Structures are given as structure tokens and as C-alpha cells.
Amino acid sequence: MLIPHDTRIALDTVVDLLNTAPANGRPEGGQADGLPDVAALHDFARRHRISGVGELHEKDLRAVRDVRTRFATIFATDDAQTAATLVNGLVAAAGTTPQLSNHDGYDWHVHYFAPDASIADHLAADCGMALAFIVVAGEQERLRHCEAPDCRHAFVDLSRNRSRRYCSSRTCGNRLHVAAYRARRKEAAG
Ligand SMILES: [Zn+2]
Ligand SMILES: [Zn+2]
Asked: Which of 47-56, 66-75, 174-183 has the highest mean predicted lDDT (pLDDT)?
């Protein structure tokens, strides 16, 4: 599956956004929200280079959390019709206006968010269209949650054969391998 560069960036952003949700079992933070305040939202915007959103306020935080919940619902469904309806609703509410741009030394790419869009609308438009691309490609099963029992992080499986099971093979995958190895050894010794 060929995924354009900007779609890949938007997918990274939506995964990171989803993984700030308390329900996504953040192993290190328990049930804490990864976006507890406006400062955290500011960090998120800077980390993901979300341009032109101006000063952020409490209402932006509420709106972004709301959009996050809607993305979680899209990730949770296997049904293309349901996903299509949800994505359509999300991007329509965000007032999507596709514009080609090559700002800040990036190659040509499409911005879907409207000029002067709020950060929530920006995320809804660009990440919503990235998920639209996945639905169009018939690749919804790539929107996954980590199979490690105590993790449940969201991720997008971009592996060639769609075989990825863990959010990170270095942490979750490796952790489970070690646990399985120890269990086997114990059995052999017992
Ligand atoms: Zn851009
Ligand atoms: Zn994981």
C-alpha cells in the first residue's frame, strides 16, 4: 500500500492523539489523561508541528478531547460503512477546504483544514482525511490496538503483510516474548 507522506504524518498524529486517551490503557500513566491541560495540548501541537492554530484555550482542549473520542470510535469499528459515516460527519463539521501547500520547505502536500481553523478542526480535517484514505484503500484492518494485555495502545499497521500485533516490538512485543520464554523455562524445569 503506497501511503503519501502527508497521510503518514496525519496517521502518526491521530495515533498519538488516541494514545493520550485514558481508555487506551497507558501503561505508565494508569487512567490519567495524556492531555490534562492547555499546556499539554500546546506540547502536542508543537510535537506534531500543527501550524497556524494560534493561542490555545480551555475550549480548544475540550474540542480536541471530543474529536479524540470520535477518532476512537472510527478506530474501533471494522465496518467500512460505519467508518465512512463517522469520517464524513467529522470532516464536514470541520469545514474541510483542500489546499495544496509547500510551506516551510516541505514538498507539495494537501492541507484539508480551513484557513484559520481551530486545532480541533485542523485535526478533524487532516486526520479525518487520512483515515478516509485508509477506508478508500480497503485497509481498515490496519487500524489496530496493541495485543499486549495491559497496553491497548492504538497503532496503524503499515507492515507489508499486515502482521504487526504490538504497538512497539521493542517494548510490548519484546516484553511478551520474555514472559513466554520465562514460562517455557519454568515448565521445562518443573
Ligand atoms: Zn503542511
Ligand atoms: Zn503495546
From this structure: 66-75
C-alpha cell at 45: 501541537
Q: Which ligand is nearest to the CA of 113?
A: 1
> Could you tell me the distance, in angstroms and rounded to a whole number, from the CA of residue 93 to the centre of ligand 2?
32
CA distance 156 to 145: 8
72 in the Ramachandran plot: left (φ > 0), alpha (ψ -120 to 50) or beta? Answer: alpha
Render pLDDT for 90-128 as a digit per residue (tens, 0 to 9).
999 999 999 998 988 888 888 999 988 999 999 999 999
What distances in angstroms separate CA 126 from CA 10, 31, 91, 130, 189, one per listed residue? Answer: 6, 28, 8, 6, 54
Q: How far is the CA of 115 from the centre of ligand 1 (A)?
A: 12
Question: In this structure, which ligand is nearest to the CA of 52?
Answer: 1
- Distance from residue 172's CA to the centre of ligand 2 (Å): 5
